[in-house]
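Sequence in, structure out. Go.
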Amino acid sequence: MSDELIRKYKSKELLELQTTSVALADKTFRIFWFNKSFKKDIGTGKIKGASLKSLFNINTPDEKILFGPAKSFVIPLADQNKNIIITPLFSQSGKDVEAYFIEMLPLVDSDFQQNAEKEKLRRNLVFQNELQSILVLLVKEKSVANIAEEILIRCIDVTNSDFGVIVFHQGDDVKDFLYTDNSNLINDKSEVEKSIKFNSSFINKWLDLNKRPLLALNHHNNIGYGLTQVFNCESLCISPCYFDNILHAKILVGKKSGTFSSLDISDIEQFSILLSFAISNIETRDLNAALESRLLQAQKLETIGKLSSGMAHDFNNLLSSIFGSLHLLRSRVPDSENVVRLIDNIENCSVRARDLTKGLLSFGKPTAKRKEIVMPNFLLNEISKVVTQTFPSNITLEEKVEDGLHSILGNGTEIYQILLNLCVNAKESIEGKGKIVLGASNILVEDNNLMNFPLLDRGKYVKFLVSDTGSGIEEEHLSKIFDPYFSTKQKDTGSGLGLYVTYGIIKAHKGHIDVTSRKGIGTTFEVYLPVFEPQKAAKPKETDKMIMLADDEEMLSELLAEMLESSGYYVIKVKSGEEVITVLTEELKVDLLIIDYNMPIMNGLDCIAKIRSLNFNLPVILSSGSLRFEDEDLKRYKVNSKIMKPYEFDTMLDTIKQLI
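Output:
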């Protein structure tokens, strides 16, 4: 029937080419055809099948008026400064109405224009008053929820709506909901939240693309139709709250019957902007407070570190004299048992003092130490064995370790030391039965979650967790636990340097440690260490050169690594040809390979052949303590240079500089 009516009444000259907004409606005042001007004036939402009442928030005229002598009925739209003119279209007999011709024209009556201007002025004054009260609240209030609730109430009041919901976001996920429904029109909030989450992805894309409110009508194929159904309302205005192009929240305001005028939508949009500012302002305020507290703690630790570093250097000078004197003393005094025992006691105490100063130095001024590829899963497995085999049976260990943890470039021994130390501390805090949780996971710090990690830079980290069900730490002591010699233990159970040194090691690895604790419930330590991600782009500076050292002789490898690092190079140590291939295929940036011929399973030449077959063209130095290599062999395997053991370190350095 609709197609027949269009064919009967649509004229190219009269309808398609008109700049005036025109449409055709059936006998129930539902639109079944419209021209481009009409679509442009209406804007968002589905038009076909929509009623005049839902589109313009008007009451349709009585038939007696339409069938009167005027033959047309004019409805002013004061807020849009336009008139809706409704004209019935009769059948050929002239008795039956088959459709209505709808025109939307600018107001020509000055009274209507004046009323529209008055309405705009009134609404603006109302909004300005509400804005002032919200701004006053923003200065005093510290809760986002309280401010959001006040904004939502005002949205409902100003637009004469029936209910409202604010949906809070964190990244792409829905985080929380806030309702204002004084008339109890929302029957099942769980269904509402389920529907909002289901429709969130598509609606968010529309909001992100258009950056303006969406008017959802209760008509099929209308964007947001599903939400109007679950709210059981005629219309729903969905307004986004963006700040720095990040969606923080959405304001949803609904009307049981009728729709929203352009003034209504404008007011809701202004309130959304205000909520965006409030959320950002409070989050920034909280972040600043947290940063200030952490900064004061970090400055205090840094000051202590500088003092202890100076003391440690002086102490090392004294220890050097003691060790030198002991060496001379052993050669000059009689070799009697009592004398040797006294000298051994002095030497043992001096060694302990030397180890203590190493810890103080690592805290006060973290220095570059020998680094290697650390596999956290392997490391945690070793710690788990120690804990289960040595800790009392009354303490259970729960492991929450992700598979496939990212590798770390660091000192494996030190990382092992800090994690085991945290486990020991956890054990000592438990009286009777208890539980220790050892966990680790990969995390990515980026713009949408940076607020949760205020002291971390953007990037990838491995987060280690050690949690216990012990006695906990008093809140006033939490800010002191990294101070030297501070301890909550009995005075005869430890030196109080464990966490102090732990902090220094983590700082040297460019990491971070967090602690939370509740008295009588337990303590949780979280250690964040950055993942090693070598740069692949621009050619690095000389001090950024990475050398991979492949040698299964541990002592020689340690010595060579230390000498290379002292010359400004980074060193990755591996012990087999398979590990060489693994490092390279993981796309770690390696500038030079020094590989020993006598390697287990895969010798040096076989490893080089495998490297070349995989199209890795990095320079290679082949070393050996016994075999002599012919130049032809070296050319065939594309070996850049060879060195013989024992190494002449100066010659090796010159060779390295020539190759990289």
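Check: The first strand starts at residue 21 and ends at 25. The domain at 372-530 is CATH 3.30.565.10 (Heat Shock Protein 90).
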